Fold:
Amino acid sequence: MTDLPWPVPALPHDLVARKLPYDPATPLLAPYTACAAAFRDGQDSPRAFLERRLETIEQADPAVRAFVLVDANGARKAADASNARWKAGAPIGPVDGMPVAVKDMIETRDLPTQMNSPIYVGWHPNRDAAAVWALRQAGAVILGKTVTTEFAVSNSGPTRNPYDSTRTPGGSSSGSAAAVGAGMASLALGTQTQASTIRPGGYCGAYAMKPSIDALHTGGVTPLALTQDHLGVFGASLEDMWAGARAIARHVGGNPPHLGMAGPDQAPPPARPRALARLDMQGWGETDGISRAAFDAACDRVANAGVAVADRRSHAGIAALETMLADANDYSYDILAWETKWPLSSYRDHGADMVGKRIHELLAHGAKITADTYTAALARRTALRNQVESLAGEFDGFLALCSSGPAIVHHDYTGSRSYALPWTMVAAPAFALPLLAVEELPLGLQLCGFRDRDAEACAVAGWLRDTVLGRVA
Amino acid sequence: MTDLPWPVPALPHDLVARKLPYDPATPLLAPYTACAAAFRDGQDSPRAFLERRLETIEQADPAVRAFVLVDANGARKAADASNARWKAGAPIGPVDGMPVAVKDMIETRDLPTQMNSPIYVGWHPNRDAAAVWALRQAGAVILGKTVTTEFAVSNSGPTRNPYDSTRTPGGSSSGSAAAVGAGMASLALGTQTQASTIRPGGYCGAYAMKPSIDALHTGGVTPLALTQDHLGVFGASLEDMWAGARAIARHVGGNPPHLGMAGPDQAPPPARPRALARLDMQGWGETDGISRAAFDAACDRVANAGVAVADRRSHAGIAALETMLADANDYSYDILAWETKWPLSSYRDHGADMVGKRIHELLAHGAKITADTYTAALARRTALRNQVESLAGEFDGFLALCSSGPAIVHHDYTGSRSYALPWTMVAAPAFALPLLAVEELPLGLQLCGFRDRDAEACAVAGWLRDTVLGRVA
Structure:
């Protein structure tokens, strides 16, 4: 096991600078799931695939700082075992041998879980989180632990955007998004309680998904807000991501009583939607002109492909939904503050200086909230969910951006949540599709679906990718 | 901090023998909540109360072995702080200064949490479970950690029944039940996923309750089966227990979105029920004649007090319920095995010899269960719950035993679950009331209530106690 120093010392920004132009059509890393034939016929192997990832980490991570630690030895051992299964023509499934990075909010049996907190330096939970356990069952290779912002709450961390190290990778799943965006890992686990998967996915040029709530088991993920915590999955392609998410569902299911995300073990074939709804979300007002134009152009491509794109101006139901989504930011903070009282208060008991500013703010807000306020917020959330469901008869998904522009030049703020948070409240699936580029930086397109219809949303996401990238006529 | 040796060495049974005749009318420990006046006027103090508990521990624990470790220094410091508040006439609430023992499945910030597993020897979770955190907020004194059976699953542990050291204390909350039953603590936290609170409560002569599911926050309690895990509370009296449970609900609530168990902060006054339903449960067939007679006599007392006691013979709805309760044991094991796959499988990954026999059995059963089997079990559970609710118009509670007799002479089996498990499936409150004695051993009467009507059930439990003990005309 190679332990990188941790906590990562506070380096001057851009000690190692990195800038790469982003091209949505040519990702840095070929999809793992596309290598199956080469693994079978011996032209490539999971071990060789892993070695290339370790090289990428060695080259890129001094600038990106996605990893808290890399377990090269453990990964090599797991990859060799996978090699043998592929050679024997008997891989466990599509993620057998796939290199996976794990957000450091998620427990691992053989590696420390430190949550970017001085309280948890060197801490060993002694068990794998359900998702990690499931991925190991599926043959995946655990590559190491990735940077989270402190307890997935705070706004800063050492990680840099893989396409421009003056910019944030987004948070809180900073390291997982950056690791996949930089081609260091094929798959990475994150979490989303507000915007922590979709936002960094879009910023870092990584495919990302937040499945329906409870559809992927969150056991062993340090809890934050029980009714909002989602497992997040990042992938080098839609196919890698889906296969990883399904491997989790297949081997360990969802949070009981949820049986786990349904669908095929490999990504469903792209499916043309009947119609899509365009959502400007709360973030439109803060979105720059170039990003707006990029989103408009993507919507035009969809329309030109013959799929109607309705919006708030053309459809009263969408207008009503937009209003409710715009409200979400406001009451969602009440829900967050109420539900995070524990465990955050117990961390604060270690000393006021042992937790960061945003945790203090959340606890202060939580102390003011009454049960009535919380109940009212839940009622508004339920109304929002019902409004989404009411559109299921007409639309096969919702189109939005992942963020109000490409990653910002900042290292103490992980960017606006106003595009990603609202669909967290909906509890239905959301996909970050890194299909746009603005000034050579990634800008994510967000495809939102209906609750517990994750596979349908994935099929539409596939069609959207092909359409926006001009892969289909 | 006084660390007792752990793991507790495998002592010969009855190295230190103990036998005490049980008298339901004269508990070993006066209720803490009854001392408020003495604390206020200075005749007694939380610190003095604590010192008496530490003496009891010193005298009794070599035979009972309820504690994994006792934190005398930490407890004294907390008790002194409470002393000052009572002296100033400003206690935080009824549990200010109350000595509390915590089952070693429940995380504590300053004490190790070891789960009776070699995997977790010396493990520090670095945070308080929600319930522990809440009790500290309420001024309670954390006395130490109590023995659990391995991961709250296995059937044995070092603890002995406080009334007869040749007998089991029951499990899995063995130490918490025994600590309260022996008068070492006024309050103790446990868990119940099958029978782990009600059974040991009855065996050890402790008041115990399993509140409605989700009504007390289980954050920081090592999970077992997500839809069955309840926090359990033991008390030296009904009043101590209720005050402790409510302090948890008040300071940290339930599992979001549950607001937390409702009701007054001190136990509601005893309330005469309209009518009660007698349940023989699945366990009647295995219940000895003396215990049956004791239960019959208790039911007679209720009837003699003018409250009708209906049963399967007199009421078709109860007959239907009895049938469904009798089935619960069977499908509940499917639910348990499905839901415990994680985390138990991750513990087993440490090595087959690092987990006990019952964990292997559960995992083996879990490997055979299909989603259809699990779904069918959930449907049967829902039907059971609906049948209970259908009786709410006629009855104010259900009367049963806590176990099929007093604690058995065994140290590798914690006793039958057939009285306590069924109401776990119902997810509604259950109270263990140690009101009966059979051959000088405690036998618990169980009072079951309706979901999220815990306070009403507590009021009926109070009336039942007074009636069975002959305290009211």
Notes: The radius of gyration of chain A is 21 Å. Chain A is about 40% helix and 10% strand. The longest strand of chain A covers residues 430-438. Residues 226 and 306 of chain A are 41 Å apart (CA to CA).
